[in-house]
Design goal:
The structure holds 2 protein chains of 2 kinds. Chain A is built from 2 helices and no strands. Chain A is mainly alpha-helical. The chains are: A mainly alpha, B mainly alpha.
Amino acid sequence: MNENNDDYLARSFQYLQKIIKDSSPAASASYTLIGGVLIMGFLGYFLDNWLGTKPWLMLIGFLMGLFTGFYELAKTVWRK
Amino acid sequence: MSAAAEQSHATGTSVLDQVGDNIIHHVSNSSLEHPLIHLPHIFGIDISVTKHVFMLWVVAILVSCAVIIPVRKYLQKDKAIPSGWMNALEAVVKFIRDSIVQPNVGAKSVDLWAPMILTFFFFILFANGIGLLPIFEMLGSINRFIFHVPASDTHNVVNSLLHGGSTVTANFNVTAGLAVITFISIIIAGTKAHGFISHWKNLVPHGLAWPIYIILIPIEIIGMFVRPFALTMRLAANMTGGHIAILAILSFMAIFADMFHSVLAGVGMAFISVPMAVAINGLEIIVVLVQAYVFTLLSSVFIGMAINVHH
């Protein structure tokens, strides 16, 4: 009985480990994509306020952030 | 539970006006007006100990007691057969070293980076996990209802511990600190493996047409900062989000009781919102593990990218 219990516990932990392993690409992808947009968007916004060029630097920042986000996402998801 | 309990004490203004503030109060750091220990300003920086700093100490002590001391004791033994807690620890350490660090960093430098990644994992796991336990809310209720200490008594230790949330990893400053360690580690790993100048050259693939470099170099430089930023946001936002969801669902009880002007509506709502909160708490247990795993995995992936350059 005890051995069965141990087996059951071990299998549960293995399954939990599998869930965690499988969910990691999804969990890691989300913020990689928006991280670039957020950083570059805010940088553009502050530069706009400083230089008085509203809204152009923010738009350029968003676009560059989008490129970077997708590039980083591809690198993270398609790594070997 | 405490969010709803405190709201039921509300007098005067509507409950709906207070719910948002109450939730934010339970997930953010204690305000600078309510530090646990008052300390002077040094170079214009207030170094008073807030609740999150206190919780950092608690986590550090817990990790020491649960991980470092058993391992030291085990190493001093003559017979090296792990048992009980040490067995579980060994399984986790083996898993992280062999399944996370080694495939990413490579067999050559796995022993150099595994200790740092393991420290990350245990620290984040304990910090995330302790945030799920309503320790201070329990102490607060015992204080309030058994010892009858009023909430207005600001000199009471337990009362002063009730300000702010107890999940340190829900604080962006803490996760940013961890991400900065990863950022510096990436540079150190690349420099150690290839030399200082080659590390920066390795950021972009070699042997491409020159117009591509005009696009690629800025993207890689931005990407260098985006990675730690994403690490920071991911951990902190995930730890904050789950707690907000639980508190919001529990707050329905107070909101419904207020809307229908009857206690019965709140009690009825409890039959829906308490099981939902329990379910989200179960989900949170997985999130706690997944986020600790993802942070360590990505840190080792980034360090590995700097060491094994192949585009």
